[in-house]
């Protein structure tokens, strides 16, 4: 059984001879399987649970989480393994467990309620519903018993039980009133607006809001916790490009590059095994929350590749390559798909209780024992271990403050963080910079080999179409920018996996999930979990990036078909924009939402706006441009009110109101001169473009879509580039340096 299979979280809800599994044992989700031996009579989300609640007139307790969530583990261990709490839940409630990554629609609906009625949101999410699925009480993590500042889960259950018995009619009335208010508040529609707002105004306001929240010293846009938020960095790069000659433009570029550098030097990056942790618990990017999510790796590799395009600094390209090395090694299925996440928690030693960060932290003693060899040529006695500890800030007392370690689990432990430049470390010990670089890399490799012997964090081996689409983009874009065919091949394998295992040819629909089975097989739930809007939007984006990287038109053709299916299943023909879920799939939920925030992941509507613009550039189909305008108009009010909540959509608005470049390369795909022109385009940061290879075949897919391609000729039988805007094309260009000059104007 792969990691992520049944009972895979060490010392957490492990089956014993005395324990009998509940019905979650039949599920595929790693998160649900983690609860399969609880004394709680859990149901998966579905009609069986709803019918029981209605028949027995009991409220539903809904618990939403995901398998690599630290506080979900805590609540499972403290409350859901507790026999008395299990009895309370079983007698007076119908308990339903949901993996938020499998059912983002359920998660979004009830998170909207929790955020509107409490001080915030997060996971685990705990919501109590009427048998008709309307929420009436909500929260996040509850400790099992009352404390000084927090009411305990047992107390909450008893209070809700009494209220349900004594004041049910009041609860139902309040629930209906809150649901109606949420419905009105969450509506996103064009109304009587005809056009989206001014891109210049939205751009300026979004930049100003980001500038006000920027951390000058450490980069990023909050005190703590700090999230990578690649959508913000993407916006800043786009803003820089369209404001290059202004002070604000330079400022935007500096903000994005500095943030990326500070993150890469911080403890949020795994310097030993590569990849990025989910967020930092402090403003210095020093001590992370240690889980690693696929969607972060996918988006950050694109951000670092773009930083390399813009700055030419190989520091950024090395970080991007490191992320992809981690994904290929740790998050890849042998058939080409990508797993969802690795946990924050793992046992420090086999048989011990899991602790957060145990796999990733180091003591001074461990490093000294692993790296005892003397460094020759230093101005003072020095070992490789001492050099590494100086550069990465390791101390005897540990580098994690007590405030960041409330349980005292990480005393004397260190998170590696780059404290000095290579030049400063070299000067400190009278060494050459390259010698220091070699010694540090060698030391990190020894730590990596030693770390292999530690118990590994739990792997969530669920594969999601949306996140796989993002990862296809990550490999395709970085491979194209760096000119590395090997990385593009990973993207091709990922796209083939999606088509083979997550696409239903008969209906043209994507599946949301599949799972790693034993022996490298791929399993599906029965019935299948069909895709949501984000699955289509992110996969289409991945396929468009893959076409530009590989120039294989089959990926573009599939993207067009998926966009047609997306339009059919999710488009709001009355109000504009896309709903997050199919009408049938979300039947019974009190709200059908349109996601209106670019957060850790971009909103699927923001992504769709970009996709529609690009598809119009590839095909000339007016319907997609019209849809893009309707979508941006529907979100006008939200953009006007809080543009910083939708930086990716503001970027799409700018792309729409500027002119999309169609860069056409006429040539033999295998010829050196064709590849040189393609690589020239890939090396430059041009977010608002489509790249088209015209191979001279009038019957090719793109020639049929864009008849003007047949009028473009090779000059003197050489590969030739044309840059077309507003249905007018430049003079033919055969030299990469001339093309570079034109594209950088």
From TrEMBL:
Residues 21-182 form the Spermatogenesis-associated protein 20-like TRX domain. Residues 1-22 are annotated as: Disordered. Residues 8-19 have a biased composition (Polar residues). Its main location: secreted. Keywords: Developmental protein, Differentiation, Secreted, Spermatogenesis. GO terms for biological process: carbohydrate metabolic process; cell differentiation; spermatogenesis. Pfam families: Thioredox_DsbH. The keyword Thylakoid does not apply. The keyword Signal does not apply. This is Spermatogenesis-associated protein 20. It comes from Balaenoptera musculus (Blue whale).
């Amino acid at each position: 059984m792969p990691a992520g299979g049944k009972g895979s979280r060490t010392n957490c809800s492990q089956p014993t001879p005395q324990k009998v599994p509940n019905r979650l044992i039949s599920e595929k989700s790693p998160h649900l399987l983690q609860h399969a031996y609880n004394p709680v009579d859990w149901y998966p989300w579905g009609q069986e649970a709803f019918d029981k609640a209605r028949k027995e007139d009991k409220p539903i307790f809904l618990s939403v989480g995901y398998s690599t969530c630290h506080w979900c583990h805590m609540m499972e261990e403290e409350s859901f393994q507790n026999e008395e709490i299990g009895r309370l839940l079983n007698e007076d409630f119908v308990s339903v467990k949901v993996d938020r990554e499998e059912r983002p629609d359920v998660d979004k609906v009830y998170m909207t309620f929790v955020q509107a009625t409490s001080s915030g949101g997060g996971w685990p999410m705990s919501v109590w519903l009427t048998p008709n699925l309307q929420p009436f009480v909500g929260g996040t993590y509850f400790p099992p018993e009352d404390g000084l500042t927090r009411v305990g889960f047992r107390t909450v259950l008893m209070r809700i039980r009494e209220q349900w018995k004594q004041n049910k009619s009041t609860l139902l009335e309040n629930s209906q009133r809150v649901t109606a208010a949420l419905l009105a508040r969450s509506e996103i529609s064009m109304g009587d607006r005809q056009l989206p707002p001014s891109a210049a105004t939205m751009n300026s306001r979004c930049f100003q809001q980001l500038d006000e929240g920027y951390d000058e010293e450490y980069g990023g846009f909050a005190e703590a916790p700090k999230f990578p938020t690649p959508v913000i960095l993407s916006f800043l790069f786009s803003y820089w490009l369209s404001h290059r000659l202004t002070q604000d433009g330079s400022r935007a570029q500096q903000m994005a590059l500095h943030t990326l550098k500070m993150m890469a030097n911080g403890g949020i990056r795994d310097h030993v095994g590569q990849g990025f942790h989910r967020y930092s618990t402090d403003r210095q990017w020093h001590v992370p929350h240690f889980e690693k999510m696929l969607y972060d790796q996918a988006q950050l590799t694109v951000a670092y590749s773009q930083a390399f395009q813009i700055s030419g600094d190989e520091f950024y390209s090395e970080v991007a390559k490191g992320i992809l090395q981690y994904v290929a090694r740790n998050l890849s299925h042998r058939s080409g798909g990508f797993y969802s996440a690795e946990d924050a928690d793992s046992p420090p030693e086999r048989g011990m209780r899991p602790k957060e960060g145990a796999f990733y932290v180091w003591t001074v003693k461990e490093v000294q024992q692993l790296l005892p060899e003397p460094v020759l040529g230093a101005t003072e006695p020095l070992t490789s271990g001492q050099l590494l500890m100086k550069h990465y800030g390791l101390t005897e007392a540990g580098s994690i403050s007590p405030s960041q370690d409330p349980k005292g689990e990480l005393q004397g432990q260190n998170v590696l963080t780059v404290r000095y430049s290579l030049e400063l470390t070299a000067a400190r010990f009278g060494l050459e910079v390259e010698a220091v670089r070699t010694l540090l890399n060698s030391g990190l490799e020894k730590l990596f080999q030693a770390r292999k012997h530690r118990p590994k964090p739990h792997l969530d081996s669920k594969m999601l179409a949306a996140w796989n689409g993002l990862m296809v983009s990550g490999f395709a874009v970085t491979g194209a920018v760096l000119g590395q065919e090997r990385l593009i091949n990973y993207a091709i394998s990922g796209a083939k996996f999606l088509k083979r295992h997550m696409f239903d040819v008969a209906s043209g629909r994507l599946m949301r999930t599949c799972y790693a089975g034993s022996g490298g097989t791929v399993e599906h739930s029965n019935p299948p979990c069909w895709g949501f809007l984000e699955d289509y939007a992110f996969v289409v984006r991945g396929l468009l990036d893959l076409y530009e990287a590989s120039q294989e038109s089959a990926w573009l053709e599939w993207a067009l078909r998926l966009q047609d299916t997306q339009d059919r299943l999710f488009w709001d023909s009355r109000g504009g924009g896309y709903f997050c879920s199919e009408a049938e799939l979300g039947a019974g939920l009190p709200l059908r939402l349109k996601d209106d925030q670019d957060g850790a992941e971009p909103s699927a509507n923001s992504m769709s706006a970009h996709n529609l613009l690009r598809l119009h550039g590839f095909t000339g189909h007016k319907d997609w441009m019209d849809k893009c305008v309707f979508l941006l108009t529907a979100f006008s009010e939200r953009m006007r009110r809080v543009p910083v909540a939708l930086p990716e959509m503001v970027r799409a608005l700018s792309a729409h109101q500027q002119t999309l470049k169609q860069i056409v390369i006429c040539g033999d795909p295998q010829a050196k001169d064709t590849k040189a022109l393609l690589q020239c385009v890939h090396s430059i940061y041009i977010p608002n473009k489509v790249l088209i290879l015209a191979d001279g075949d009038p019957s090719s897919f793109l020639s049929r879509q864009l008849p003007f391609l047949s009028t473009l000729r090779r000059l003197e039988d050489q590969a030739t580039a044309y840059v077309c805007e507003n249905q007018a094309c430049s003079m033919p260009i055969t030299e990469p340096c001339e093309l570079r000059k034109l594209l950088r104007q």
